[in-house]
Amino acid sequence: MNSLIHRLSAWERMVTGRLIPSKRSRWRWLLSLGAHLGDGVLWVAVGAVLLVWGTPYLRGSTLITSLAVLGATAVSTAIKYLVRRPRPQELTRFYVVRFDRYSFPSGHAARMAAIAVLVGHFEPRLAPIGYPLALTVALCRVVVGVHYPSDVLAGLLIGLLGAWGMLLWI
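The structure assignment produced for this chain is given below.
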């Protein structure tokens, strides 16, 4: 089992290293933007606006989505501090303030998956935007060098399970 884990880790380091663009790449700013689209502060602001100025239906669906995101964030953060997997090499100055130093699982991917599932449930017309956005954020997190592929896959799974659990609960 240890041999398998070491081989998978070596493969992930190799893949991640090949995906990270050079510091001179003209796409770096766009990849960084994509990686930041899953930032919690952005989604707290979106949720606050919807809770204050939304219709009753929109406020209710925002509250349910917020609860699922909080749950996914709590689970992913707890796992991060249990596993304590170091992040891969980061792009210089990717973070202005570094909130956590562990990579497994990706909280951004968990948050975006929960949002995509619930927004797609409550507003099906937005599903074609939500799911690709969640996958884009997850991929960009790997490409900018702050996560390994398994980090974002685990984060996406946590977000999906959290959202589905919330849908079963309501």
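Interim note for the steering committee: Residues 31-89+97-169 form one domain. The chain has seven helices and no strands.
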